[in-house]
Amino acid sequence: MATLEFKNIGKSFGSVEVLKDINLEIGHGDFLVLVGPSGCGKSTLLGTIAGLQDITTGSVLIDGETVNDLEPKERDIAMVFQSYALYPSMTVAENIAFSLRMQGVPKSDRMQKVREVADLLQIDHLLNRKPQALSGGQRQRVAMGRALVRDPKVFLFDEPLSNLDAKLRVDMRTEIKKLHQRLGTTIVYVTHDQVEAMTMATQIAVMRDGIVQQFGTPDEIYQTPANTFVATFMGSPAMNLVDGAVANGRVQITDGQSLPIPASAGSLVDGRRVKIGLRPEWFSPVSTEGKSVDDLTLSVDVIEPTGPDIYVALHLGGTGIMARLSADARLKAGATQTFKIDHARAVLFDAETGNAIYQGTTSRD
After folding, report:
1. How many CA atoms does the CB half-sphere of 186 hold within 13 Å?
2. Which residues 6+ apart lie within 8 Å of 330 measured at CB?
3. pLDDT tens digits for range 223-282
4. Burial class for 247, CB neighbours closer than 10 Å (0-12, 13-18, 19+)
5. pLDDT tens digits, residue range 81-102?
6. What are phi and psi of 121, to 5 degrees?
């Protein structure tokens, strides 16, 4: 295990800045996920830890030691690549043991270590096979075994599951998380898949255009997004954003409907343009007869059953939004429906900057 710190990291390719003043710190045994769209700089940031990318400005520290000038082999890190990068002419055992052989570890010792890692990853029955005889999931386990056998300070994963089918991605996601819980290793993991980020991380850094938009726990990122980018990038379905204006302690939406602004939001000037953020699961259908002033009546456009839930496409204030309801909810496409909104958890964003100006309570009571 190790601590990891980025101090004022900047990286440029000529006049193009791909990383901009990044400051992050994770502790022993943390699982940091760098998530964001393609081209946001997450893989470049991972490369600065490994020593595969030179840093233009700033420092990377592992266990408090600046490693900027250390060669990759001197940093005591291990990396698992998207492409597995296995040697096709070597058996599984030889692939796993390769780094130990390069270090001059005696054969008996390295084979003992290989057996321990293979048993941990449940690939001990594959040790005599070559990569071409393995499935994608088995190759990924071998690539992980090659990293684990070195017992490094930090493990780096660069989109390791992107080449796998959907079911296998879920299975491998679980295996990596179980491995982290068992070994307590420090991991930095790159993905563009926000579901991977939410389910695996202890800390998430959401990136866009080389800038960390928000850093926090999965719950913090999901419940209290720092801006509209994070709000819509993290979550499936995404957080709904509805345009409105502050008036008399409420957010006025078109169609004459409104939602209250919690007292804890402080005093907001009437007329201020905002976007109100509502997660799909914060909607609950209620009868029209039981409607209160804080409920919304919306038109139902489309109903999408998913098994345990249904996704309902709705119309509010000229904006299409989505509700996530239990499968037994009884709604009809083309009808109108009244919904109670968990407005205490709503997030208010400035309409111009997109930055959060009020982040609601995270209570699930």
Report:
1. 17
2. none
3. 999 999 999 999 989 999 999 999 988 999 877 899 998 777 778 899 999 999 999 999
4. middle
5. 888 889 999 999 999 999 899 8
6. -90, 0
